[in-house]
Amino acid sequence: MKKLNLGFRSATKNTMHHLQLNYVKTELEAEPLKKYMAQIAALGIFSDKSGEMVFATPVSASYVDTEEKVVFAEK
Question: Measuring CA to CA, which residue among 52, 17, 48 is closest to residue 9?
Answer without folding.
Answer: 17
